[in-house]
Amino acid sequence: MNTLIIHAHPEPQSFCSAMKDLAVATLQQAGHSVQVSDLYAMNWNPVASATDFQQRSNPDYLVYALEQREALKTGSLAPDIAGELDKLLWADLLILNFPLFWCSVPAMLKGWIDRVLVSGICYGGLRFYDRGGLAGKRALLSFSLGGQAHMFADEDAVHGDLEPMLRPLQRGTLAYTGLSVLPPFAAYHVPYVSADSREEILEQYRDYLRRLDTVEPLAFPSLADFDRQLQPLNNRERVPA
Amino acid sequence: MNTLIIHAHPEPQSFCSAMKDLAVATLQQAGHSVQVSDLYAMNWNPVASATDFQQRSNPDYLVYALEQREALKTGSLAPDIAGELDKLLWADLLILNFPLFWCSVPAMLKGWIDRVLVSGICYGGLRFYDRGGLAGKRALLSFSLGGQAHMFADEDAVHGDLEPMLRPLQRGTLAYTGLSVLPPFAAYHVPYVSADSREEILEQYRDYLRRLDTVEPLAFPSLADFDRQLQPLNNRERVPA
């Protein structure tokens, strides 16, 4: 199995960075190939802009997704994007490893999503969810946060349930491109816990990574349940997958 | 009323940019003061990093939120952050104006959130939600997207309901800092509609902006309903707000 880890933390000695190192070691020990994109170390450019295309289909008006599709055909994606896209296409498993900033990824990692999940290959037209361009691959969020598990336990919790907080990432991004999304690994309360507790969290993460092949992916929509206008079909109209 | 518009679109001629221009004109005509941070035009740096602090409380290990708190006290926030924070504190109304990228803000705007919503002033400790540092101010998402309204109509829609998709932004970010969040303005299907339809959307946005004072904010948790550990209180224990 080929694994790509996208890591984005501004402190190389952070617990989150230790999670990344542990994932590399654990997966390699199990015989898998691993590549890491350490976005801060790479000085990754997170800003989607006109300079992402070495030639433009329409130089007068930027429609980003449209230029992505054209640049794919002409091989004119910016080299940093093309390099990351190659790694993504190589991978069977994508791990996004990050500290939760404002209930989402840091801008650095959002800019990897914005620029590397290229229209025309990762998704496009009616190719999304179970028909997405990355179908057959798996993905996983692994993140550290200051909050505690009970704060995201259910809709009565102070921040509500974890699922809606992660929905733009797990459903709107990963599942949208066809990836099978495995349950997230959340390292709670990290800045406030003891060294022993941190070791326990790392041990839990190691265990989780070792049994990935037995883990059931999360459920997301199937396009067979929607018509061409993406209106939900009633049960009688539903097309078998 | 003072309004700050944070605008992040890579194409200055975009519909989304027209929404920003319309908001400026409409609010100024109503006698309000408006400032705009056009993040692409400013070449805003979206990457939270150690260089955001002109002096460090702990130069050997970066805890971003902790350094924010210290930098506030010593006046050593990076000048671009301090400038945006001043605008935010000046504002009575914050509008985030952007194209929806992956069911969220573009990295450019995420980096404004990551860097400018400074711990120690916008939130911190038990100062969040209705006790957040920005309580008394209002905020609003205004965004353009390719999808149609029925795709986010409810939990049976192809992308589920709009609220969970916007939860990290509306609840996890804006409401978290104490802002009263007004209902979002979503400009649906923009790349695919006629010029007439675009004019209609702008007209709807103008109408919405003119009646902002009559608009009821969205509901979010009150910390009075949670104990010191942020466990939900049962009804008998609840403290009147």
Automatic annotation (TrEMBL), chains A, B:
What the entry lists under Gene3D superfamilies is as follows:
3.40.50.360
UniProt domain Flavodoxin-like fold: residue ranges: 1-209
User: What molecular function does GO assign, one term?
Assistant: NAD(P)H dehydrogenase (quinone) activity
Q: Which InterPro entries match?
A: Flavodoxin_fold, Flavoprotein-like_sf, NAD(P)H_dehydrogenase_qn
Q: Which UniProt keywords apply?
A: Oxidoreductase
Task: State one Pfam family annotation.
Answer: Flavodoxin_2
One Gene Ontology CC term in the entry: cytosol
SUPFAM superfamilies this protein is in?
Answer: Flavoproteins
Keyword Amino-acid biosynthesis found: no
Q: Of which family is this protein a member?
A: Belongs to the NAD(P)H dehydrogenase (quinone) family.
Protein name as annotated: NAD(P)H-dependent oxidoreductase
Taxonomic path: Bacteria, Pseudomonadati, Pseudomonadota, Gammaproteobacteria, Pseudomonadales
